Amino acid sequence: MIELPVAVAALYRFIRIDDPAAVRERVEPLLDAAGVRGTILLAHEGINGTVAGEPDTLRGAIAALQAMPGFDALELKWSGAAAMPFGRLKVKVKAEIVTLGDPAADPTQAVGGYVAPADWNALVDDPDTIVIDTRNDYEVAIGSFAGAVDPGTPSFRDFPAWVDAHSDELAGKRVAMFCTGGIRCEKATALLKTRGIDDVLHLKGGILAYLEQVPAADSRWQGECFVFDERVAVGHGLAPGSYAMDRERGLPVKR
């Protein structure tokens, strides 16, 4: 973890939750008692969120969360911030933990293969692999992997339509996808499987894991990675980036 005054934990797991509201009643007091801030989403398909707090206290709260049934295998990414990036704690029950809007795509039933950050460069460099950035257009604009396909989608809800419009190009190909922390691209693999595309992979832990684990000298990443908190963007080593948020337009801009 980066040694900064505030620890930040991005987490998710696709797992069947029969009663998300009951889980919320356990999760919210646990995090609130630890002074944690940020957002946690719960749905029948799992848990997703980013939270922040004093490092030792946050580590204890996350350990308690992992001790809850089904949450032991959370996909968890630590980083740091110079100041608290969230105003308050919100724990919400939603229809989806990441909104795709296609009920056929069920990540609790089938997803593509996981690719470790150390093995990702081989896919980016492989001309026979279609590498797709599943993030929103404004995120792609400040950084992406060299040679990756940019669907130009304003939101993740638009991704199924893009896939359907390009189904002929994707059919029979190896497709590797990535996103910020792994959740959108993992759900995207479930979507592609419903479209009959079986040779589908995604970057385990997302861009954040890659930027943390792969040395800058070996990196295929260009630019910075947008994050959904007050840091706005991070770079290699998850160091704070050079962007601020234009509140009027809702877009990142260079400081």
UniProtKB/TrEMBL annotation:
It comes from the Bacteria. One of its GO terms (molecular function) is oxidoreductase activity, acting on paired donors, with incorporation or reduction of molecular oxygen. It catalyses: uridine(34) in tRNA + AH2 + O2 = 5-hydroxyuridine(34) in tRNA + A + H2O. This is tRNA uridine(34) hydroxylase. Belongs to the TrhO family. GO terms for biological process: tRNA modification. Residues 125-219 form the Rhodanese domain. HAMAP family: TrhO. Keywords: Oxidoreductase, tRNA processing. Catalyzes oxygen-dependent 5-hydroxyuridine (ho5U) modification at position 34 in tRNAs. Its EC number is 1.14.-.-. InterPro entries: Rhodanese-like_dom (IPR001763), Rhodanese-like_dom_sf (IPR036873), TrhO (IPR020936), TRHO_N (IPR040503).
